[in-house]
Amino acid sequence: MVLESIVSGITVRKHPLVMMFLAAVLSSIGIWTSYYIFPSSASILSIAFITIGIVPILYTIFILEEAEEASEGGSWPGFISRHFDIVKIYSWFFIGLILSYSLWYVVLPNEVRTNVFAEQNNVIGQISELRTELTGNITGNAIGSSSVCAENLWCWFDVILQNNLRVLFLAVILSLVYGVGAMFLIAWNASVIGAYIGQDALIVLGSYAGFGHFAPVLAYCHGLINAFGLIPHGIFEVTGYFVGAIAGALISIVVTKGKYRKNEVSLLVKDTIGLVFLAVILLVIGALIEAALIVG
Hints:
Shape: globular
Distance between the termini: 50 Å
Number of helices: 12
Helix content: over 70%
Strand content: under 5%
Order of helices and strands: HHHHHHHHHHHH
């Protein structure tokens, strides 16, 4: 495809920051294309367009990664360093999507925003309702009336970890079946975070009315600054999803490759097991931090 001919997998591996700009381009194209084709489904279709656009580049990167690992070998304990460059690539793409989606949320006209972010807004509302129920502020049965967490740290930890592990499972399965299919899930999460930042920015927009044309810019920056509160736990959770997606993609490549070098399969299988184990540890840490922040 055209994008892959302009920005190659080799270039991205050398300069992971490029992925942030690719994310901005693909998300912008995806948002407007999906809105003009199927406006009522734009919130999901835009994610599909992003995934379709980035998959060829990511697949090339994974092929290069696997070939390099197979030719150079290496001890199993070094699996983290061997795949850290892929984590950086995912991270920059994720950050780019968050920035792009949050910016579009602020600048789009209300009627367009309603369609483009329909499902994202719905998810944010559901999360807010669930948190309200779990704090015991209202009577509800989100996960059972006996599951109201109030200020119980371990109750919150259990709820958060269960949800995160489900997302990790989906990330691994999607990558296993579709190679880099977890990118759809990653892009979706980035769009939800972007919508959350955009909502926050619009809420405070009125307080910057005295700054004229600079008001949207200041409100957007305000939303971004508030989003830093997501970093303490988010960095562990999101990295865990990235690591799980990488594990699934490696297994997918092993299954479809057909020809292998000596010890290549055993090394990749060990790397995959190590990556999944690392992903679970990261999610446990993230869930514990998030639970502590909620209770605190």
